[in-house]
């Protein structure tokens, strides 16, 4: 089963899978280590199902499991998402935590529906590559190298998992779910679910529990803890966003968001944001959700950031003191995720004495500067690391 390939409409088959330490992944599954939730997915050869590392089901034998770096890689290998641990609810689902700006930007655009045929902003891989300033073949190579799946496959998996969230957590009709998750037609939506789950999408709803029947679409967007929500809300209010009683709200405009309505975001205690979107065109939902993820920096990996930045003796106590700091992103600019844009923008303001030291902070330089700012440390007062230490 693990060596097979799914035959789902619209998905590309790419055989190159990035290397993972399979035994280390299995050890994480044995302990259900939440730190690895969303970092990889474990597929069970005997059942044809892939799961999160924290799945509550009994852990299969090591010989029956194979691990993939992304949900898309697991699905093109022929596995389907677990209905119990629900891979679509993993933090930072599908995001890549590497150093390639191109991959990070591409994922943000795919998340917004750049490859959805039913989306107003939809297009093909060549158009996406042109938007990123690279060749189509180069983009495919980067995706195979880092995600184990082609861009079209990543987009297909995003559509399927967003649809699963809408089926489980909302009362939208199946035609509305197909529209809101980026499928070009109800027929393609039904065919895809039948191929992946061997059942119609409506069967998934029979086993689900929805939270409420309020206006619009209400979804839970997970984040990787810790998260300094108070600092984020302060930063958003300071720049002029509408923040009241712990809730962030934005009015949607057709010219900007391809729909009219509003979106509101509130903090949840279960490592997630509570997002409600009221819009007059459900095709805009993927774009709205992608922009919410960007504004609230939901793709941040605090553990990786802390590990790398703590190598600097100046930053180590600052990161330990405020481990959940996030970078507020812009609503419109999905071409440049918050951390990349902030890092590039601030780089030109660094004093010459700090340049060598700041190079050691990559790829988290923007977060390093955020911690320095929060601690009110003046950049001009930070000594340069000697060249031998920088090397």
Residue share in helices? 40-55%
What general outline do the C-alpha atoms trace? globular
Q: Report, as a whole number of angstroms, the end-to-end distance.
A: 46 Å
For the biggest sheet, the summary is: 5 strands, antiparallel
- Tell how many strands the DSSP assignment holds: 9
CATH superfamily of the largest domain: Homeodomain-like
CATH class annotation of the largest domain: Mainly Alpha
Strand order of the largest sheet: 5-9-8-7-6
Give the helix/strand class.
alpha+beta
- The total of helices stands at 18
CATH second-level architecture of the largest domain: Orthogonal Bundle
User: Average pLDDT value?
Assistant: 84
Tell me the β content: 5-15%
Regions with little confidence, pLDDT below 50 for 5+ residues? 1-15, 387-391
Rg, alpha carbons: 21 Å
Question: What features would you describe in this structure?
Answer:
With 391 residues, the chain is α+β, with helices and mostly antiparallel strands. The protein has 3 domains: 1-209, Homeodomain-like (Arc Repressor Mutant, subunit A), CATH 1.10.10; 217-295, 2-Layer Sandwich (TATA-Binding Protein); 302-390, no CATH class. It has 18 helices and 9 strands. Strand 8 (261-268) and strand 9 (272-279) form a beta hairpin. It is globular. It starts with 21 loop residues before the first helix and ends with a helix.
């Amino acid at each position: 089963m693990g060596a097979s390939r799914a035959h789902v409409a619209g998905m590309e088959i790419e055989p190159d899978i990035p290397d993972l330490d399979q035994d280390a992944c299995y050890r994480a599954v044995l302990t259900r280590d939440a730190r690895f939730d969303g970092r990889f997915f474990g597929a069970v050869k005997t059942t044809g199902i892939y799961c999160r590392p924290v799945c509550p089901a009994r852990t299969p034998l090591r010989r029956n499991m194979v691990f993939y770096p992304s949900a898309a890689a697991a699905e093109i290998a022929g596995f389907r998402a677990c209905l119990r641990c629900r891979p679509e609810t993993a933090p930072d689902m599908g995001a890549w935590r590497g150093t390639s700006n191109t991959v990070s930007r591409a994922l943000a655009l795919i998340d917004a529906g750049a490859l959805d045929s039913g989306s107003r902003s939809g297009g093909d891989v060549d158009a996406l590559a042109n938007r990123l300033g690279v060749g189509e073949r180069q983009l495919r190579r980067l995706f195979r190298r880092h995600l184990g799946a082609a861009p079209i496959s990543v987009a297909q998996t995003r559509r399927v998992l967003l649809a699963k969230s809408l089926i489980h957590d909302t009362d939208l009709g199946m035609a509305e779910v197909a529209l809101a998750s980026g499928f070009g037609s109800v027929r393609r939506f039904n065919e895809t679910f039948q191929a992946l789950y061997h059942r119609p999408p409506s069967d998934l709803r029979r086993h689900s529990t929805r939270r409420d029947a309020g206006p619009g679409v209400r979804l839970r967007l997970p984040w990787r803890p810790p998260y300094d929500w108070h600092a984020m809300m302060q930063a958003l209010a300071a720049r002029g966003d509408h923040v009241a009683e712990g809730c962030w709200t934005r009015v949607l405009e057709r010219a900007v968001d391809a729909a009219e309505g509003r979106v509101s975001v509130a903090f949840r205690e279960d490592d997630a944001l509570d997002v409600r979107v009221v819009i007059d065109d459900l095709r805009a939902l993927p774009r709205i959700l992608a922009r919410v993820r960007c504004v609230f920096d939901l793709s941040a990996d605090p553990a990786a950031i802390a590990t790398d930045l703590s190598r600097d003796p100046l930053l180590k106590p600052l990161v330990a003191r405020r481990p959940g700091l996030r970078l507020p992103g812009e609503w419109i600019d999905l071409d440049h995720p918050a951390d990349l844009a902030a890092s590039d923008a601030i780089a030109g303001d660094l004093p010459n004495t700090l340049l060598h030291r700041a190079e050691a902070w990559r790829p988290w330089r923007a977060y390093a500067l955020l911690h320095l700012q929060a601690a009110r440390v003046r950049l001009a007062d930070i000594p340069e690391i000697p060249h031998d230490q920088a090397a």
